[in-house]
Every structure is written in C-alpha cells, then in structure tokens.
Amino acid sequence: MGFTMGLNLLLLIAMVATNILSLYHLSSNLQSKPTSHAPVQQPVPDHLINQLRTIRATIFHLTRIQDANAKPSSTSKPAIPSDLLLYSKLAPIASSCHNHPDLLHQYMNYTPFSLCPVDDELAEALILRGCHPLPRRRCFAATPQKTTTSYPLHPFPALLPDQAVVWSKYACKSFACLNRDNKFKGFNTSTVSKPTFLSSASDLDITIPEFLKLAKTLSSPIRLGLDVGGGTGAFAARMKLRNVTVLTTTMNLGAPYNEVVALRGLVPLHVPLQQRLPVFDGVLDFVRLGHAVNRWIPLVAMEFLVFDVDRVLRGGGLLWIDHFFSKGEDLEKVYAPLIGKLGYKRVKWAIGKKMDGSGVKNGEVYLTALLQKPVSK
C-alpha cells in the first residue's frame, strides 16, 4: 500500500513540474515578444529540453514500475487447477501439455472424487497435440446406464451390444447408426461383411495366409504383434483366430473405435501416431503400419516412427507396410531412402497407382512392403 502511494505521489510531482516548466517557457516567450507584427521563432533552451526529457522518462519508468506491481486484473491468466498442481508434484507432465495451457487447465478443472466430466473430445484434442500421456485425475469415469452380461466371445460378433457404450459423447447413439452412416469404417464386425485380409485384389494386398507363409519361410515365428492405426481392430480379430495376439493403436475421433476393439476381446491402445509406442524393446514378432500411416505425417515424425518400430521389433521380426501412399516422386526420393535407413531385408516391395480422385489428381502411388529386421546389429 505505502509503496503504491509513494509512486502515485512521485508521478503527481513529475507531472506538475512538467506543466510549470512548460508554462514558464511560454510566459517568457510572450513577455519577450517584439512589437513588430512579424513572428519570430524563439529557440527552446537546451537545458529546458533536457529537463523535460528527464521528467518524461521518469514518468514512463515510474508508470512501468507501477504496472508491474499492480494487482492482477480480471483479465489476467486463470488460476492453475489445484489437482494439476498436486499431480505435477507426483509425476512429470509431458512438455507439450504446457504449450496448450487453456486446454490442459480445462481438462484438469473438475471436482475430485465425483463423476469425471464427459470430455473425450477435449482429451483427444490434447493427445493429438502431443500432450500424452494425459495427467491422471481423481474422478469416476462415466459408465453406461444399462449394462449387459452378454459380451461377445467371438472377435467377429453378429451384433455389438449398444448397452456397452456411453453414447452421449458421439453423434450416433447406436451401432446401427454407425453401420448406416459409416459403412466403410469397420463397425460391421460380422463375418458376413467383406472378408478383409483374406482375399487379394492386386499385388498390393498381402493376405494373412500369405503373411504367415512368408514368415514361416523366413523362420520368423508369429505370436505377438502390433497394428498401428488399426481402426476397429479387424486385422487383430483375424489374427486372433490364428492364435496370434495383436495390440491395436487407435483413436476415437468421433466414434467408439476403442470400445469396439475391446468388445471384440482385443486390446486397444489409445495412442496417437506421434507418441512412443508403449511396448518394451525387442519383444514383438511383427508390426503392421496401416492406412493411418501415410504422406500426411511430417517427414521427421515419420522417421521417429519407423525407428520406434525398429526398437520394439525383435531380431528377425517383420515390418509390414500396408498401402502407404505418397506422391510417386516422393516415394522414390524421400520415403524409400527413409525406409532404407533401417537396413532391413526386402521380402516384398510392391508399388501401384492410387486410382481414386485424390490419387489421380496428385500423382499418388501406394507402397506395400514386407521387410525383415536383421537378427543382430
């Protein structure tokens, strides 16, 4: 309080002094004005100019000090949520989270020990911006109002139970709606649907029987794998029928992809493409990169991704690149050399034109490749 009053007093004295000096100079000019009608410009004395400059600089400096010591106004940054402060003392928070404080504070602004807010879109917005893993929260995740005891035992169930999903966060409110409005998104899990991964339409397709046969000829056992960007888990479901365990990374993006993977009796990993794979080093027999991995991923991020795949693959493991698309010239000059940095053996390398509207317009091509990691380095 005293410091602020002192600053105000100094400001008042400085402004009064400025006015007095200005008036003095003006009055002296009027008194010394000649009787002649011709106007005569009187030069301002240097000492007066220097005094005025000093006073104005003092006012400016004092004003800055006062602003720096002023109490925060209503437009200042909001307070950090208490649970965010508490959790930050227990575990590190991803550095990218701090680049989006508004979203992070909104996510952590909840009532502890009560129901969590229904904010899946907010959570995924943070994750896709690199804020992963998200900070933990001390609240109860929402569960469906009506539950079911008849969960599917087969990975290709004829019907998925609507009661197993909290639909309030999605535009569709049933699997029937999803199947109607998203025919090609994989929500029709019945075996009546197109036998994906079992038939081949071109050299770009690798069927599961072909993949297993090639792995056998390479003396590479197939027991455990990872499907990156696996959507609703169709590939992992097919492999489950072959007694192969496949983890599936997937994001929800407006539809219950993770829930569907789990309903099929599979393991969904809620992980974005730019984050480190949550698997230990050298433990996987194979990794499949699906349609989600394409030329829209920044080149440096792509490089980190393929080397992270190398990290989790065991010696002799297989990397399956399935329908990666890019411009033809970029595949030759950019992506093929990038993949070549791994030093893997080419088991299959097939290139074909991308014949949809975007592919024709942009001169895009598909690449399907099967590569084997060296046994030792």
UniProtKB/TrEMBL annotation:
The chain crosses the membrane at residues 7-26. InterPro entries: Prob_Methyltransferase, SAM-dependent_MTases_sf. Keywords: Membrane, Transmembrane, Transmembrane helix. This is S-adenosyl-L-methionine-dependent methyltransferase. It comes from Kalanchoe fedtschenkoi.
